[in-house]
Every structure is written in structure tokens, then in C-alpha cells.
Design goal:
The relative contact order is 0.09. The chain has a seven-stranded antiparallel sheet. The protein has a five-stranded mixed sheet with strand order 10-9-8-11-14. Helix 4 crosses helix 5 and helix 8 crosses helix 11. By secondary structure, it is of the alpha+beta class. About 45% of the residues lie in helices and about 20% in strands. A hairpin with a 2-residue loop joins strand 6 and strand 7.
Length: about 525
């Protein structure tokens, strides 16, 4: 069944279950976890058989080799789809398999719609494994934290007249809507599509929430601004230049304290797990290979279980803080413009380690034990930006910003990054020069400009999605310098938190020029 394309939004309400009701919800989620893993165990072998099918291999390779406009690509695609259907790997086939397992093992355990939602999640993993060669992964014990329905009047039913939710024969009490919460009151007036129950770790236990998916658009929280702006997205920073001014922002500013809490909780959990399972570790501290895949070899004490919940809670706090920071920052940008021009960024590629091991171009001096100095070319670091991306979640911020602009009627354009080359262009000399990644500023017409802000300036003055409008750049460059001065003053007050602005270097060069 095709996914619904109608717009929708989510309303979250706190559930106050009795202890016996919480136990039932937990058992239902554990049952869903086991049923999902049973299906994974079956489909792992089916996917492996499909991968060895010579006709499937031939058509899949031919399909991947075809271009977008190749007339024969559709024929190869149809043959691949036929092979997938022949092995019973379509979404409906997975639904039917999991429904048979439900009827045999536990007919009254979970509703058929909830089982089908689990089957849909598994079908996505199966298709990814078929087309990209990845593996289908089991879910860890206790990692299924959501039960989702497909319709408003089945399984998980919200009853607005009593303001409660009905699930598995239970009546679950909800936190009342506060009189001052006008937004939630407006949001609850929409038409219900379906509901889901979610549990989240808080301290050493769980809290439960009802998520009501409403049909239509969510009530407005902010008012969209006017004019256009250019966004230069980075790994740890976002530079915006537009009609309403310029800004240099750090997504999820202050997330470091939550990262420290995650590290501390992880240390406590690992220590308690090691104390309870010394037989599973080698003398050098590494895990023995024969214990990685067998859960029965691991002993989990009450202290280790409590520490694991604390670790999950720390991760939840970090994710919630990042989401709130992204929402606040995206609202500020939406209120300043209605048209956003940005460079596309492939953050998943930036997070991966380099495959090739290469040496640096520059030489380094190495002092030997005998006192002599030898020049060598060190190896380049294979690490990329995985830690920074995990800390700031820039892709989530850009996605949230795009969604909000579209929701309020704004426009978002991606330039052709290969031809636009915002970081290399100089509108005064009308030339392109590739800078080093460590260069945080450059000289343009005798003026010092911050590299990311200047890229945002060029995007703001884009003539099309291929080049900047040089005439418009020349006209608005004095205004940009004034904007940059304000941003520079703000950075001097707040400090260069990530070091990506290059505040110290810019102040030093300014001092030299002033002298």
C-alpha cells in the first residue's frame, strides 16, 4: 500500500498509566520486538537466496549501470521487481508472513495493524539489503519503544469526549491540556489519522506518551519574513546573509554538557557490565569473540540494568536538547526570509572515514633518539567529521528548516555546487581560487571577509542556480561589510565557540591593517 501523501502533524500527550498498565505496555512492546526478530531470522536466509540468483544479479547490475534517461532501465527494473516478488519479499508478503506468525503463536497479543506496521519497517530494511548489499539487523532486547496503529478507530483509540486513550482493553489517563497552552488546544482540534504509544527512558524507568497524528497542517507558531537569504551550511556552523541581515550560528550550542553526561553514563554502565561478566573479556580488555552474538552468556545485574537506563536517558536528553535548539534557530531564520538559496551538503559522505591511506604534501621534522632530525611526510588522518556531525546534527537542522519554509509557503533552492563554487569565487576580480580548508577568511577588494559569510553573500546574490550576479554583488558589497561588522562584534561578545569563524585571525589581521 502506498504511503499517504496528505499533510499531517503530530501532537504528543503524556500518559499516566497505573503500574499494572505499564507492565502490559512493556510486555506488548517486548512481544513486538520478538515478532520482528523472528521475521528477520526468516528473511535473512531468503535475501541470501535472492542474492545468489543469477537472473536477479544480471538484471540488478544492468539496472545500476543504466543512466537516468536510458530507455532500457525500466525493463531491468521490472525484472528486478519480479524477482523480489517471486521470493516473497514484497511488503504485502512480509505482512502476511508476520500475520501468520501472530495467529499461530499469540493471536491476542498485538493487533493486526500494529503487526503490519512492524512488517513495513522490516520491508524497508529488506529492500535496503537487496539493493545496497547491507545486512538485516536484529533489534536488541528492549529496543522496540513504539506501537503504532494504521487507523483512528482501531487498536490505539483516542477518545476526545473523555480525553483518554483505549489500548488492549485498558483506559489510559492523559495529562490534561493546560488552559494557557493555546497552541496545544488548537492542535487537538484536527482530524485524527492514527495514534501511536511511545515510551522514553527517564532516569531509571520509562515514561509513556501518546502521539496523535493529525490530518492537515499544524497551527502556525511563527510568521514568515520577507525577502531572500543565502545559507552556507557547514558541519558545525551555519552562515546566513540576506535582506534582514547576517548571522553566524552554531547549531545545538551548549550540547557539550549533554555529551559529557552521555560519556559518564556510558562509563558507569561499562564498568558494571565488566564486573558482572569478567569471563567475557580478554586480558587486554577486549570482548571475547564467542560472546558477542550470544545473549545468554551475558549476566545483567540490577545495577547494570539501572545504569543502562541512565545511559538511554542521557541520550534522550541530548537528542531532545538538539531538537529544541534546531527549532529555535530555524524559527529565527524563517522569520527573516521567505526565499532561501543554499548549497547542498552530503553529510553522510562527510561522516565516513577515508578509504585510501595517503601521505601529506608537507614534510614534518621527526627528532631521532640520537638527536638527529629526519624529515618525513606523515600520513593523512583518515577520520572526517563524524564526531562533529554527531554533536551538531546539521543535516537534521537543514531538513527542519526546509520543511518549515515549505510549510509556511516559502521557497528553498539548491545551487549547482560544481559550477557555483561559492567558497572559491571573488566577485571583484571575477575569478575562482580554491582556498585551504583551514582558511577562515580571505581578501576581497582589499577587505577582509569571513569565508562562510562571504559564501552566504554570494548565494544571496545568485543570478540563477549556477552563478552569482556579479553586478548585484558589486552593489550590495558595502552593505555586506556593514553586516559583517555587526556579526564580528557579536562574535567578540559571545566568543568563537567552535573556532570556525576565525575570530582571532581576523582581529589580528585587522590590527595589522589598522597599524
Amino acid at each position: 500500500m502506498a504511503n499517504s501523501s496528505t499533510p499531517s502533524y503530530t501532537v504528543t500527550r503524556r500518559i499516566y498509566p497505573e503500574p499494572w498498565q505499564a507492565d502490559i505496555i512493556n510486555r506488548k512492546m517486548d512481544l513486538g520486538n520478538r515478532m520482528y526478530n523472528n521475521a528477520v531470522r526468516h528473511y535473512k536466509s531468503v535475501v541470501e537466496e535472492l542474492r545468489q540468483d543469477l537472473w536477479f544479479i544480471r538484471n540488478l547490475e544492468a539496472w545500476k549501470a543504466c543512466g537516468e534517461d536510458d530507455p532500457g532501465k525500466e525493463d531491468f527494473s521490472n525484472e528486478v521487481s519480479a524477482c523480489i516478488s517471486a521470493y516473497g519479499l514484497d511488503e504485502y508478503d512480509i505482512h502476511a508472513y508476520m500475520a501468520r506468525g501472530k495467529n499461530i503463536s499469540n493471536p491476542k497479543g498485538l493487533g493486526i495493524n500494529i503487526i503490519q506496521k512492524l512488517g513495513t519497517a522490516l520491508s524497508h530494511s529488506v529492500r535496503k539489503a537487496v539493493f545496497s548489499g547491507t545486512e538485516i539487523h536484529f533489534r536488541r532486547h528492549g529496543s522496540t519503544d513504539t506501537l503504532e496503529e494504521k487507523a483512528a478507530r482501531s487498536g490505539i483509540i483516542y477518545k476526545p469526549e473523555k480525553d483518554m486513550v483505549s489500548f488492549s482493553g485498558m483506559r489510559l489517563r492523559l495529562k490534561p491540556v493546560r488552559k494557557k497552552d493555546a497552541y496545544l488546544a488548537r492542535a487537538m482540534q484536527g482530524q485524527i489519522k492514527y495514534c501511536r504509544i511511545v515510551r522514553e527512558p527517564f532516569g531509571a524507568g520509562y515514561r509513556y506518551f501518546l502521539q496523535i497524528i493529525m490530518k492537515g497542517k499544524a497551527p502556525d507558531k511563527v510568521s514568515m519574513g520577507a525577502g531572500s537569504a543565502g545559507l552556507d551550511p557547514g558541519v558545525s556552523t551555519m552562515a546566513v546573509v540576506g535582506d534582514s541581515g547576517a548571522g553566524f550560528f552554531t547549531p545545538a550550542e551548549g550540547v557539550e554538557k549533554y555529551e559529557r553526561a552521555v560519556r559518564d553514563a556510558a562509563t558507569v554502565y561499562e564498568r558494571r557490565r565488566r564486573l558482572a561478566n569478567p569471563q567475557n573479556y580478554n586480558p587486554d580488555g577486549t570482548v571475547k569473540k564467542d560472546t558477542k552474538t550470544f545473549k545468554k552468556h551475558w549476566r545483567r545485574t540490577k545495577g547494570a540494568t539501572r545504569a543502562l537506563m541512565e545511559l538511554k536517558s542521557a541520550y534522550r536528553k541530548k537528542a531532545s536538547y538538539i531538537k529544541n535548539c534546531h527549532g529555535y534557530l530555524s524559527n529565527r531564520i524563517v522569520e527573516s526570509c521567505s526565499v532561501l538559496i543554499k548549497e547542498p551538503m552530503d553529510y553522510s559522505a562527510l561522516a565516513k572515514r577515508a578509504r585510501k591511506l595517503e601521505r601529506q604534501d608537507k614534510t614534518s621534522e621527526i627528532r631521532q633518539k640520537d638527536g638527529s632530525v629526519r624529515e618525513v611526510r606523515k600520513y593523512k588522518n583518515k577520520k572526517r567529521f563524524g564526531s562533529s556531525i554527531g554533536r551538531r546534527s546539521p543535516a537534521a537542522f537543514v531538513k527542519q528548516l526546509e520543511d518549515k519554509l515549505h510549510r509556511y509557503g516559502g521557497l528553498v533552492y539548491d545551487v549547482d555546487i560544481a559550477s557555483f563554487r561559492a567558497s572559491q569565487y571573488d566577485h571583484i576580480e571575477d575569478t575562482y581560487k580554491k582556498p585551504l580548508l583551514s582558511d577562515r577568511f580571505k581578501l576581497v577588494g582589499g577587505h577582509i571577509v569571513q569565508r562562510d559569510l562571504y559564501s552566504g553573500f554570494l548565494l544571496w546574490n545568485a543570478a540563477d542556480l549556477v552563478h552569482s550576479d556579479r553586478k548585484k554583488c558589486l552593489e550590495t558589497f558595502p552593505l555586506f561589510l556593514e553586516m559583517q561588522e555587526k556579526v564580528l562584534f557579536d562574535m567578540m561578545v559571545s566568543g568563537d565557540l567552535t573556532g570556525n569563524f576565525g575570530l582571532k585571525d581576523m582581529l589580528a589581521v585587522n590590527a595589522v591593517q589598522a597599524a
